[in-house]
DNA sequence: ACTTGGGCGCTTAATGGCGG
DNA sequence: CCGCCATTAAGCGCCCAAGT
């Protein structure tokens, strides 16, 4: 490899710092200059983050809203409203307002301007102040000065705070300290969204933006704590003094050295970022293995020479196979799936509760357990195949064969009635809701698709025999919520009673229950049918989530996007409109449309709408296809029910 | 009378799957 | 980014027996 990168004008920001905590490789690659030059050599990198490459290649390129990730759309939205929140909150104090977010002076000039305000002014609110220390540039979301006392707030479009949020704001605090500010006497707060917020419809005639403003002081909350994971009740947890003070991150054992010897650490980062090629790597490092979730992960593996075929990183679908554990396995030399053969794949606790013969059975090595009749019968009878998913997963990969519990699947398929309604909701969630009575990040349904099988014993998804497709998509962004439900209620009864089915029913059930709870003051009987759907909905995901059918192709996943193509590889995304092809694009289109409120309703929207209609039928059609294939598959077998109900007789000679 | 430690069951934390 | 769900790991109080 004789390829050298010359790095000029590197950008050192708080993200450089935060990324470096995850690992030097990751930090190096997330530098724009480094990335761009590396991408010229490694084609994979271009494909992995197409928009990033496109943006960096052509700096003058105007990225349209359609190309912005939804997190950016929400981030900008929350940023805008947080300013109104602070202006509103300190209205009575008559503070001076400085907003540098739209200034085009260049960073150095902003630093000077910020410095002047910080020195001379008293009683002000400053948005997007600029500071620099030792080459590291930061922009502070909000700085408030009240009678000489400073307060720094970091605004996040989230409803809880984790360790990396604490690191984020405390890095800024450290830079301010190095600039000579006495941060020990500053108030440091994380400003987050209040998930109890509701866009109450107090006055009928208020426009949406007026309504948000009306509820504004309840939209945000400030606090100074972070948690290892999200508490069920954040408010209660804070009141009880749970969690950790963000200030204390300086004394956290993992970060103590960094913040105590800050200058030295910054130098280490600078040296790393200036390296002329990708840092060589043969093991995973960092304080955690979170960076394994990065979009660049497939590239990491390839660069480290890790083979795709039997890598332990293929194992997923189980919190036990978390990135940290897999990374640690790799570091101690367990790199391939066959090397985990001897590891205890079931927890001690689970093993203790098993019958002795099963325990012995699982100890056997070099034994094709997935084909063993006794094991299959044991799982068919005991409904606990999910407990053995690691074993199923590992052996399926090693033998490259499917694992099937016919009896379980047959039982599941027999529950379905003659007429089957396969339904799917398309929803959009926004950090700050634009639909009346909605709360932060609440999923708003704007589109549904229903495939109806008129006779479960006589249909075909390819010819369309006995298959009906119904769909609905909001026509404009005004008050579509009620229309959605009245149309859905009507369509779900159109061909009489039947089974109601969705994939991962929990999601659809939540959407329905949100609506039912919201309108309970209205006549109950009007919603009795929705309640019936809520209670009776079957889950097409069940055979896969419970490992009754497992293919090595699944790699631990049972998402419809993995299971669908396994059964019907001939249905593909190829025919779909380019505008809704990529991942979550459909939801993004709707989100833009909702956020823009009334301004976006034009011809462009109508084109997008047509594309969205085309896409929506895909998932429900897949459900019909999966149902049909599963039925055909099971029909091949002759069932020996005598065997299935007989005593499990373990052949001791095999143990 | 007091301390210590193992075993037990219950609760809570941590992780990652699913949908969007 | 959200909520919800499942599994596993860790923490806690409790009992009881053995030791000091």
From TrEMBL:
Domain DUF2779 as annotated: residue spans = 421-559
Q: InterPro entries per the record?
A: DUF2779
Name listed for the protein in its UniProt record: DUF2779 domain-containing protein
Q: Which organism is it from?
A: Candidatus Hepatoplasma crinochetorum Av
């Amino acid at each position: 490899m004789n390829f050298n990168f010359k790095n000029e004008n590197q950008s050192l920001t708080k993200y450089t710092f935060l990324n470096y905590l995850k690992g030097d490789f990751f930090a190096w690659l997330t530098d724009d200059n480094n990335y761009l030059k590396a991408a010229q050599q490694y084609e994979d990198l271009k494909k992995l983050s197409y928009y990033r490459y496109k943006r960096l290649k052509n700096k003058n390129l105007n990225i349209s809203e359609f190309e912005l990730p939804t997190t950016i759309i929400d981030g900008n939205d929350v940023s805008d409203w947080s300013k109104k929140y602070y202006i509103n909150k300190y209205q009575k104090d008559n503070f001076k307002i400085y907003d540098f977010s739209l200034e085009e002076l260049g960073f150095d000039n902003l630093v000077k301007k910020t410095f002047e305000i910080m020195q001379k002014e008293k009683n002000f609110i400053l948005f997007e102040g600029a500071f620099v220390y030792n080459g590291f540039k930061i922009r502070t979301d909000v700085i408030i000065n009240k009678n000489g006392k400073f307060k720094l707030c970091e605004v996040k479009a989230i409803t809880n705070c984790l360790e990396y949020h604490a690191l984020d704001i405390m890095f800024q605090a450290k830079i301010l300290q190095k600039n000579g500010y006495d941060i020990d006497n500053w108030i440091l707060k994380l400003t987050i969204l209040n998930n109890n917020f509701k866009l109450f419809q107090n006055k009928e005639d208020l426009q949406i933006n007026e309504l948000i403003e009306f509820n504004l002081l309840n939209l945000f909350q400030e606090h100074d704590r972070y948690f290892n994971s999200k508490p069920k009740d954040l408010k209660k947890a804070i009141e009880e003094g749970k969690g950790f003070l963000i200030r204390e991150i300086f004394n956290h054992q993992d970060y103590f050295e960094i913040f105590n010897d800050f200058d030295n650490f910054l130098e280490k980062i600078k040296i790393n970022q200036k390296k002329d090629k990708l840092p060589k790597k043969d093991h995973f490092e960092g304080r955690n293995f979170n960076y394994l979730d990065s979009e660049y992960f497939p590239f990491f593996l390839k660069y480290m020479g890790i083979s795709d075929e039997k890598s332990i990183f293929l194992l997923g679908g189980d919190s036990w196979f978390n990135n940290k554990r897999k990374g640690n396995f790799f570091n101690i030399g367990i790199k391939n799936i066959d090397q985990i053969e001897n590891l205890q794949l079931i927890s001690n606790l689970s093993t203790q509760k098993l019958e002795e013969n099963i325990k012995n059975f699982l100890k056997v090595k070099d034994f094709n357990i997935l084909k063993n009749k006794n094991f299959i019968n044991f799982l068919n009878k005991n409904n606990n195949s999910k407990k053995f998913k690691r074993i199923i997963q590992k052996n399926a990969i090693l033998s490259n064969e499917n694992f099937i519990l016919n009896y379980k699947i047959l039982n599941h398929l027999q529950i379905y009635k003659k007429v089957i309604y396969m339904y799917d909701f398309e929803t959009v969630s926004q950090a700050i809701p634009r639909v009346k009575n909605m709360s932060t990040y609440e999923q708003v349904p704007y589109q549904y698709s229903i495939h109806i099988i008129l006779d479960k014993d006589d249909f075909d998804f390819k010819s369309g025999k006995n298959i009906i497709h119904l769909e609905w998509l909001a026509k404009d962004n005004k008050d579509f919520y009620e229309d959605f439900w009245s149309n859905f209620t009507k369509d779900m009864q159109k061909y009489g009673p039947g089974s109601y089915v969705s994939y991962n029913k929990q999601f659809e059930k939540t959407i329905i229950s949100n609506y039912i709870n919201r309108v309970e003051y209205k006549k109950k009987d009007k919603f009795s049918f929705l309640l019936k759907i809520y209670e009776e909905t079957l889950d097409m995901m069940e055979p896969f989530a419970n490992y009754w059918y497992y293919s090595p192709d699944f790699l631990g996943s049972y998402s419809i996007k993995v299971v669908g193509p396994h059964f019907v590889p001939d249905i593909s995304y190829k025919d779909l409109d380019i505008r809704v092809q990529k991942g979550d694009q459909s939801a993004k289109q709707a989100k833009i449309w909702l956020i823009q409120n009334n301004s976006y309703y034009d011809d462009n929207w109508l084109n997008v709408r047509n594309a969205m209609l085309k896409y929506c039928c895909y998932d429900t059609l897949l459900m019909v296809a999966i149902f049909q294939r599963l039925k055909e598959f099971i029909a091949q077998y002759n069932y020996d029910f005598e065997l299935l109900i007989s005593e499990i007789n373990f052949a001791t000679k095999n143990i």
